[in-house]
Amino acid sequence: MKQVLLVFLGGGIGSALRYAIGRIFNTSSAGYPWGTFSVNIIGSLLIGVFMGIALKNNNLSENQTLLLVTGLCGGFTTFSAFAYENQQFLKEGDLTSFAIYTLGSLSLGILAVFLGLVISKIF
């Protein structure tokens, strides 16, 4: 039960942070979902850092990993919003934005995880 509560707590914090960033950056005047893009890249970086620290000499307990990775990062990042925003680009016939957003999110997200793992070696 404690583990479920840790995931719940981390997820709530991550979701609230995602909401706040989305409110700031996902404006109709921006024309591009910068908030979602940002949280997914930052979340990928954080997952890399947290997992790197967790895997390095078991520096994070299972409970800490559940709180930070499964809860916080899981609640912070959002595949569903990413998918919906891409559907909107396709619906509007904006194939350029669709391609840039999809390829940028995937490639930068994966690179951010690798960078996070490299950063974790410093700790």
Summarize the structure.
The chain is built from five helices and no strands.
Describe the protein in words.
- By secondary structure, this protein is mainly alpha-helical.
- The protein contains 5 helices and no strands.
- It has one domain (2-122).
- The chain is 83% helix and 0% strand.
- Helix 2 runs parallel beside helix 5 and helix 4 runs antiparallel to helix 5.
- The longest helix is centred in the last third of the chain and has 28 residues, at 95-122.
Please render the helix and strand layout as text.
Layout (H helix, E strand, L loop, with lengths): L1 H24 L8 H22 L6 H15 L2 H13 L3 H28 L1
Helix pairs in contact: 1-2, 1-3, 2-3, 2-5, 4-5
First-last Cα distance: 31 Å
What's the helix count? 5
How many domains is the backbone divided into?
A: 1
Question: In oligomeric terms, what are we looking at?
Answer: single chain
Hey, roughly how much beta strand do the residues contain?
under 5%
Based on DSSP secondary structure assignment, what is the total number of beta strands?
Answer: 0
Q: Return the average pLDDT rounded to an integer.
A: 95
The coarse overall form would be globular
Structural class: mainly alpha
Helix content, binned percent: over 70%
Radius of gyration: 16 Å
| SSE order | HHHHH
Uncertain ranges: none
How is the main sheet built?
none
